[in-house]
Every structure is written in structure tokens, then in C-alpha cells.
Amino acid sequence: MRSSTRDVLQSLSARGLFDGAKTPAARALLEKPGIPLHLQALSGAGAWLAAVFFIGCIVILGGWRHQALLTEGLVLIAVATGLRWTSNHVFPVQFALAMSMAGHALALVGMGEQADSALAITGLAAVLAVVLYPLYRDPVHRFLSCLTALVAIEGWLIDAKLHHGLHALLALEVIALGALFLRRGLRPSLRPLAFALAFAGPGLLATFCIGEMKLETTDWPARVILTLALVALVRHVGGRREPAILAILAALALGAFTAPGLLAAIGLLVLGYHRRERLLVGLGIASFAGFLGYFYYSLQMDLGMKSALLMGSGLVLLGTRRLLAGRPWARKECA
Amino acid sequence: MNADPLDRPADRATLDRLLDAGLLTPEAREEAVAWVEPRRDWWTWSDRSLLFVGSALALAGVVFFFAYNWAELGPFLKLGLAEGAVVACLLGVLWRGIDRLGGKVFLFGASFLAGVFLAVFGQVYQTGADAWELFAGWAALIAAWVVLSRFAALWILWLTVVNTGVILYQDQMAADMPSMFLVLGAINLTALAAMEFASARKTAWVQPRWTRPLLWGSALFYLTIPVLWLIVDYRDCTTPAIAAVPFLLGCYAAALTFYVRRVPDLRAVAVAALSFCSVIVALVGKWVFEVSEAAGAFLLMGLVTLGVFSGTVVGLRALGRRMKEGAHA
Questions:
Q1: Is B244 inside any structural domain?
Q2: Which of A43, A123, A187, B218 is the most buried (most CB within 10 A)?
Q3: Which of A8, A25, A324 sits opposite B46 (nearest CB)?
Q4: Per-residue pLDDT, A334
Q5: What whole-number distance in Å separates Cα of residue B179 and Cα of residue B192?
Q6: Is A91 touching B (CB cutoff 8 A)?
């Protein structure tokens, strides 16, 4: 039998974590039905499809001119921001979101065509993310806007041949991710930024596998960064001394030879489970599967080498499991 | 029915609403989530994660190894290695026992490696067989293991192999595309029906929580495509495309009866609603864009899309409330 909301609030109140005087406000809030995530997704799908038609309308009216695209994009973003302030209903919220994202696409394409510079696109994406974060109070918008800016920075580093900078960007993303997620009580307003960082990391690592990028850098700095991050994460979450030490040794063994994408996927799985964030766990699983697919086509090493690396990584993990299963405390928990 | 919403069971969504409204602090929300969704202990989680991730990596390593196509390895050694890997996994099943998770993972490995063996066989003997025949043979070869396994992940692997075989058959035999979608829809619907039947008989291993959205979503996807095709290009319609219409209508009816009354699941109804909305928008769009392709037509279509989706969401919210009240009654 699951606890009622009243039981939970009373328990929190007894521990000084909830002000009992807010109970009527909580009741009033919960009397209004919430919108389940799958209905939000359905509504979002409709809004995005509608936005495609509206963009078609705007492009036909305004023409595919570079200057017009930039202006149209910025106007769409402004209208969407205004619409978001005036309504909290599902459809206007989703419609404003779709309009703003369409505006982002038009403005960035317009800027790219006009300035012909990746730096200009990155600058515009970063300015939009920073300016709109406090103005546009919608978690999905904040997430997408930050993710766009992070991807733009990555694109600029690749375009400008600053390939070693990708490792610096990865290090900054990992540090920020840890600072946000490992702090107790992540503020709701910062969650979209934290998730944007979590999504940007695997995306960045995928570029190491894409042969066409012809990156003039090796992957070992990324491996070092992610191994250190994994060790720090295991140390943070490891309750018992012995299993934590074994897990750290396994992380170091993996970090010695495995691909950065695998380390990132494992890190996301552990972080997601520790924080009870299903989305992070899902991202970890998707990164893992996506990485294996990408890795097959990576041109940095031949299939024989990749095979040895994957089998080695698998054996390290299965060996760690075997080692852990033999410990007395594990047998006790299984019993 | 509970009159006071505070007496309803607490869940993460409720706590997130309280947090977003500023009635809970982030620390209080974390404490409450830890209470209402007690985490399995770290050891159980680590044990399963290490087993699944480690096995997946090792299997991927084997696939990469054979894909390398070692010139130095003779045909018998190649076949022997592939066969040896399958046998080793089967010995693992005997060692761990088919009822334990470790044994099931070994059987999954054996089933997966059977496909690798067939690929190596085709590579060595240059049988000239089409790729779809490899997948058909693979599905047939592992069918008995799948039935014995009582392991949802292995059933999904088998269905993936079958689905891939059908897609490759269409590609290589230049078969009719709508027929392919119809067959894929029928296969996934049959699997879904079998899963629901087993779930109703309290068969725990079928795990409807993740297999239902996967099977239901893919069946609806495969049946919606030929119907959209029919709408967009009705002059070139074929019998299978027309046959997909009653199948899809049957799915909508099933969503409104089975997933509302028998096994209440608003997620499943929402997936059917997405398919329904796409069909309606395509129908209206076909008519509108045949009349005009001017800016006004795009504007009208944007408004129609808003109307169709918002109307459906409003309807589903009301349905969801009724389903919830029915559950609490």
C-alpha cells in the first residue's frame, strides 16, 4: 500500500521540511488535475506540427531571404515569449515553445547565411540562451535553448579547427554537471541547464567516432577526464568502503583502455540511479546503444582493435560483478 | 472515490507539482521521492547493471571480431569459433540454470551468437542467400530457445530479428511496401495480444510495463504508414493499403475498449490518439493543399492541427479523470 500525499507531507512537517500551514494550498493545487507527461507529449507533437505549417506560411509571405530569416526568427521568439507569459494552458504553452524553437532555427540559419561564420551563430545561440533563460520560464525551452548553445559551441570548435578545445569543453560540462547534480536539492530552475549538460556530453563524444569530422586530436584526454569524473562519482555515492574501492578500481581499469563514450554512458547510468532521475538512466542506456552503433563506423581504429576493446570492457565489468558477488555483504543482501 | 486529493497515493508527479508551485523545497522533494519510490539497494542494481552492460559489450565485441573478416583465419577456425561461442553460452545456461537471471542472459547470448554463426557461415561458403534468408533462418533456429527462456528481452530480440527479416524481404524481393507494413503490423499486434493474454494470467516475466509501449507503438506505426500513404496518393492505392484501414480502425477501437476498461492505460490510448490525429491532419491537408498551396493554406493547416490535437488532448484528459476515478472507486 502506497503512502498518501497527506502522510508524506505530515512526515516532512515532523522533520521540519514542510510548513504545515501550506497544507490547504497543497490541497487546492492538487484538486486541479495535472497533465500526465504522455498527454503533454501528444500536445507538444501537435504544436510542433502546427509550427511547421506556420513557418511555411511565414516563409511564403516573407521569402527565403537571409535578412528576412533572421528578423522573422527574432520576431517569432519575441511573440512566443509574450504568449508564454500570458497563458499556462497546455496548448498555448506547447505552441509558444514550438514557435520559439522555430524562431531559433530561422534566426540561426539567417545569421549563418548572413555572416557566414560559425562564431556568429554560436554567439547568437549563446546570447539567446542567456537572455531567454530568466525570461522564458519553461523547463523544456530552457533545456532546448541551452542545448542549442552548447551544440553551437561544439560546432564552432570543430569548424575553427580548435579540436583540443573539445576536451576543455567536455571538462567544463562534466564539472558543471557534477556541481549541479551532486548538490543536495537541485533547484527546479536549474534542472533544465543540468539536463542540457547531460545531453550535450554524449553528443560531444559522438563526434570523436565520426570519421568525416577528421578531428586533429586524440581521445585520451577525454578518457582521462571521464575516468576521473567516474571515480569522483563512485566515491561520492559509494556507501560502503570496500565496494566503493572495488568500483573505483574497475573504473580505473576501464579508463585505461576503453572508449570515452562507454565511460560517459556508464557515468550517466550511475548518476541517474543515484539521483533517481529516470531520464538520466534512459539517456545512459540510449548513449550506450548509440555509442555501440557509432563505434562500429568509427575510422580511428580497425574492427579487430575495437573488438578487443569491447570484449575487454565487457570482461572488466563481468569480472567486477563476479568479484562483488563473492563478498560477504553481497551474499547477505541477496539472501 | 476520494474527495480529498491529499488522501490519494503520493507519486513523483504529485511531488513535482508541489515543488513547481513552491510548496515544497528541493530538499523536501528529494526526501519525499526517496520515501514514495524506495530505491532497490545499490547491490541489486549494480549486480544487474554490470551483468547487462558487461554482457552487451562482450557480445558486441564478438560481432566486431567476426565483422573484421580475419584473412589469417581459415574457414573451419572461423566457423569453429562462432560455434564454440554458441556452445559456451549454452554451457553457461546449464551452469547457471534457465530460471536464474544469469542463465537467461547466457541463453540471450547463445541466441544472438546463433545469428553471428549464420553470418559467418554465409561468409565462408558464399551461399548466395539473401540477407532476409539469414534473418528467417536465425528466427527459426532460436525459436525453441525463445519459447523456453521465459525472458522478455529474448522475445523482443526474436521479434526484432523477424521484423528485420520482413523489411529485408521487401527490400530484396521488391515486394509491395504497404504489404510489408501490413505484415509487420500484424506480427507486432499478434505479439502484443499474446503478451496481454499472458499478463492477464499473471505471468510476471512478460513485463508489460516496457513491452506494451514497444509492441503497441510499433504496431500502430506500421499500420498508420500505409493509411497515410493511401491518403496522400489514393490514385495509386493497393489492396494491402486499403486492408490496413480496418486494421487501424480496429486498433483505435481496442484502445478505447481494452485499454480503457479491461487494462486501464492512458499511455496506450495516447499513442493511438497520436496515430488518429496524424490521419485526420493528413486527410484535411490532402484536401486543402489540392485546392491551394498559398500561404493561406499553410495558415489554415496550422490552425486545423492546433484544433485536432487540442481537442484530442482535452478529450483524453477527461477520459483520464474518469479512469482514475474508476480506479479509486
A1: yes
A2: A43
A3: A324
A4: 52
A5: 20
A6: yes
